[in-house]
Specification:
By secondary structure, the protein is an alpha/beta fold. Among the domains are: 78 residues, Dna Ligase, domain 1 (2-Layer Sandwich); 156 residues, Nucleotidyltransferase, domain 5 (2-Layer Sandwich). The strands form 5 sheets. Strands 11-6-1-2-3-19 form a 6-stranded mixed β-sheet, sandwiched between helices. Strands 7, 8, 9, 10 and 20 form a 5-stranded antiparallel β-sheet that branches. A 5-stranded mixed β-sheet has the order 14-13-12-17-18, with helices on both faces. A hairpin with a 2-residue loop joins strand 13 and strand 14. Helix 4 packs across helix 10 and helix 6 runs antiparallel to helix 8. The longest helix is centred in the C-terminal third of the chain and has 26 residues.
């Protein structure tokens, strides 16, 4: 049975996640998984190449050690407010004698999209077909084999900042690896947490990370809109820190252990003991006060997404509701707040159908992106049919440093 090794790398603001998997024709076997603290990124952008490279090396070495093998090429997730998207429509004529559409005709469509004029500081990250038309007949998912004289496509085109992509590339290469493909994070997350029926009916995916929140809208099984918003979990933690005058680690701990996104979700309004800093003594606050601090920022985030949903024109086409994923979705009461703001049913999305091996270790919303990087990638194996623009790079020796991060999650 044919199989291949795939490695995914999720560069997050708070942590770097790496997964090595063996993909066969029927399943995915998770061989190795590694996590390292991230200090080199800010809101999805590389702010320090050296620190980012160190985190990549650490996470990849942990994953490689557990898998018992090393890899060179990585599928890397991309996020950040530099991400934009547009819809583009183009067509080609079918010139062969039988007028039968072949795969080469789809490639001609994609090649034509690559010639569109974009700013010099932007590059095309993905060309994702939404719908095909054959002789003006629409609603076609796969036109190969059909007969016609005109093949037309509506594409969702994702653009990224050239400097942002170059900084990711430099960080990965400094760690000793090669970027095989750049994958937009909400696209990767959707591959791991969304069901086909949800994509058909219309679904809003919200991936809440540490530095950014990624959204993706699907309708009729095709991606229709993507957006990256610079409000996420770290802003919530910072609000707690500033309001209560405590250090960041304590604020993060309070958020995870006692915080709620909305007051109606509170199970018990107990007092929380907060350790004093410096000359200030210890204090107690009720859970309701902590929740009020959190809910202001979370409601702001969901309101921004609500506006984006309306502006996209797909508000009334989201029939399957909202799926929340990413580490920020683990905040208690998140689904209740989403239902209140969007007026739609909401659920938490966890990676689906990962198969055997260490899959239980990545069955959590915070690993949705890295799970998607190995599930639907590489190349054109994804049912979404998207393509990525590859960047060639020179091989660099594999880093040998190995650091344990057993207490990492306790620090978050």
């Amino acid at each position: 049975m044919k199989k291949n090794i795939i490695a995914g790398l999720d560069l997050g603001t708070t942590k770097v996640c790496a997964v090595i998997a063996e993909k066969t024709e029927n399943s995915i076997n998770i061989l190795g998984f590694g996590v390292a603290p991230s200090e080199g990124l800010n809101r999805g952008l590389v702010a320090n190449i050296s620190k980012t490279a160190e985190a990549i090396t650490e996470a990849m070495n942990i994953a490689s050690n557990r898998a018992g093998l090393t890899v060179k090429e990585l599928n890397v997730g991309v996020a950040g407010e530099h991400i934009t998207s547009l819809r583009h429509r183009n067509y080609v004529t079918i010139n062969n004698p039988e007028h039968e559409i072949a795969a080469s005709d789809l490639e001609r469509l994609k090649s034509d999209v690559l010639t569109i004029r974009i700013p010099s500081d932007r590059q095309i990250l993905h060309i994702i077909p939404e719908e095909y038309f054959v002789d003006y007949q629409g609603g076609i998912d796969d036109p190969i084999g059909m007969s016609g004289q005109r093949l037309e496509a509506v594409n969702h085109v994702v653009l990224a900042s050239v400097p942002a992509i170059q900084n990711i590339k430099k960080s990965v290469e400094r760690a000793g690896y090669i970027v095989k493909d750049y994958i937009l994070q909400p696209v990767a997350s959707s591959l791991s947490v969304l069901e086909d029926n949800e994509k058909d009916l219309g679904i809003l995916l919200i991936d809440i990370g540490g530095g950014t929140t990624d959204i993706a809208i699907y309708h009729k099984k095709a991606i229709k809109h993507t957006k990256v918003i610079g409000v996420a979990g770290n802003q919530v933690t910072n609000d707690i820190r500033e309001t209560l005058g405590i250090v960041t680690t304590d604020a993060e701990k309070l958020k995870k252990e006692y915080g709620y996104a909305i007051e109606t979700a509170i199970v018990k309004d107990e007092d929380i003991f907060i350790k004093g800093v410096g000359a200030r003594g210890n204090i107690k606050i009720p859970v309701t006060l902590l929740t009020q601090i959190i809910s202001v920022r979370m409601r702001e985030l969901f309101s921004l997404i609500e506006n984006e949903l309306r502006n996209s024109g797909f508000k009334n086409k989201i029939k399957a509701g909202v799926v929340l994923t990413g580490g920020g979705s683990l905040l208690k009461g998140c689904t209740e707040l989403a239902e209140d703001v969007f007026g739609l049913p909401a659920r938490i999305g966890v990676p689906l159908e990962l198969g055997s091996g260490l899959s239980n270790e990545v069955e959590s919303p915070e690993f949705a992106t890295v799970a998607g990087l190995i599930k639907g990638i590489p190349g054109k194996s994804s049912s979404e049919g998207f393509t990525t623009v590859k960047t060639t790079s020179k091989k660099i020796d594999f880093g040998k440093a190995f650091k344990k991060v057993q207490d990492f999650f306790e620090k978050l």
